[in-house]
Design a protein that fits this description.
five-stranded mixed β-sheet, five-stranded antiparallel β-sheet
Length: 371
Amino acid sequence: MEELERVLISAVQTKARKGTVSPETLAKRWNIGIETARKTIEKTTQFAVRDFTNVTGSRRFKPIHHQLKYRRLDVEMHCDTLEGQSVSLLGNRHAAVYCTPIYWIAVDPIKEKSDAHKNLDMLFCSVGVPRVIIPDDAAELTQGEFKRKADRAQALIHPIEAYTPNANIAEDGIRELKRAYRRAMAATNAPACLWDLCLVHTALIRRHTVSLIRELQGEVPTTRMTGETGDISFLCEFGWYKLVWFSTPQHATESMENKRLGRYCGPSLNHGDAMSAWILTDKGRFVHRTSVFPIKEEEWSSDGFKEWVAEFETRLRERLKDGYNLLEPDQEDDEKVETPTHEPYEPIDPNDKPAMPELAEADNIQHEAFD
C-alpha cells in the first residue's frame, strides 16, 4: 500500500514531458554550467524536442515541428464570426474576427462559418500563435479542423461560458469595427458588395493607430503585439475607395503600358509585393497592382476628366447591378460620436518676433493686494 502511494505521488510531481532535455544534459551538451543551463531552460521552451528512448531507426519520425514555424505570442486572442448583410463581390458571406485585450484586431472574410479554420494558418504565419484562443461556444471555433490546427500549433482553446457574450472581447471589437467601417462606406458611397474589403481595411487602420489604451503605452497595437515597430507604408498612401490611376498592359502582345482609372480598395496582402493594392475596375473586377498613382488637382478640375469619371461610375453600376446599392443604415450610425479636431498648421516665420506683453508701471501696482 505504501509503495502504491509513492508511485502516485511521483506521478503527480512529474512536470516534464518525455523528450524534454534536463539541465544536466544541456550543461553537458553545450559545455556550460548546470545553474546556467537551469536558468536557460526556465527562460526557453522545448515544444518540438523528440523522445529517443524507444527509437530504433526503422520508422520515420512523425512531424511535430509545426510549433517552431510561427512566432509565439504571450497574449489572449478572442475570436468570433460576423455575418455580412449581403454576398460580397468576392463571394464572402461571413468574416472571422480576432481581437486582443489591447484591441489589436484582424478580419478574415470567409464564405461560410465552417471555413473559419482556413485562415488560421495564415494568422499564425503572419502574426504568431497566441497563448490561448478564446471563442464563444460555436462549433466552428471549438471543434473540427479549427481545433486540430490550434492543437497542432499548441494554442489552447478556452471557450467562454454559454450565454455570456460580454465576456468575449471580440464582441466589443466587432461593434467598434462595424461603426468605423460603416462611416467609411457612407462617406465614400461605396457599394455594399465591398463590405468585406472595407472591414479588412478598417481593421488594418485600427491596429496601426495610436489610442489612449493604457496597455499600449503610447504605441500602436501592432508594435505591442509583435515587438517590431509597425510600418504603415502599405496603408497610408490612399484612402478607402478613392479614385486612382493604375498601370496595366494595353495589349497582351505589347510591352506598352496604359494608365487606367480605378477604385482603391485597400492593400492586397496576399498578392504581389508588399505595396500591392486591390483595385476595382469599371468592369466590376479586381486587379492587384503596385503601380498606383493619385489623381492630381488639375485633373479633377478638368471637364473631360469629370465626364470620364461619370462614365466609369455608369459602367460600374451596370456591372455590379444590385451589388452597387449602398449599405443598409444601422441605428448605431445615428449615434453622435465626438471626433477630435485639429488646428490648421501655420508655418512660423523665423523673422517674426513674439509680441512682448505690456507691463504695468510700478507706481500703478497695488502692492497691498499681493501682501
